[in-house]
Amino acid sequence: LSVSSSSFGFIHPAVPNKTRVAILAELEKERRRLMQSQTMNTPGASISLSRPSLKEFRDNAEQQHIAAQQKAALQHAHAHSSGFFITQDSSFGNLILPVIPRLEPES
């Protein structure tokens, strides 16, 4: 039973055979390079040779954006209110939360 890679849709059927062979050779070369670099990296190494993933990059950018929004909201609240506010993650999406002091009951 012979199954070509194009039957699974990996390479478009309109791509010439010469190009297919070149693409497959390049993929195999990259796979070997990754396998070799993976075996060369020791588990305790402090420096990772891999690039950060796109998800990590997006998460970091999103955190920086939220931090900037929190800072702006906090500055605005302190400038326009006599209350005290803190930055804190909220399950309701609030960037800042008011701090309400506890008063001792008068006896």
Which of globular, elongated, flat, extended, rod-shaped describes the shape? Answer: elongated
Helix content: 40-55%
Largest sheet: 2 strands, antiparallel
Tell me the strand percentage band.
Answer: 5-15%
End-to-end distance = 91 Å
Strand elements, count:
2
Q: Which runs of at least 5 residues are low in confidence (pLDDT < 50)?
A: 1-9
**CA-based gyration radius:** 28 Å
User: Taking strands numbered 1, 2, ... along the chain, how are they ordered across the largest sheet?
Assistant: 1-2
Q: How many domains would you count in the coordinates?
A: 2
Encode the helix/strand succession as letters. Answer: HHEE
Oligomer: single chain
Mean pLDDT level: 74
What class would the helix/strand composition place it in?
mainly alpha
Instruction: Give the number of helices.
Output: 2
GO biological process, one term: response to ionizing radiation
Subcellular location: Nucleus
Protein name: SOSS complex subunit C
Subunit structure: Component of the SOSS complex.
Task: Provide keyphrases for this structure.
107 residues, mainly alpha, 2 domains, two-stranded antiparallel ribbon, elongated, disordered N terminus, SOSS complex subunit C, DNA damage, nucleus
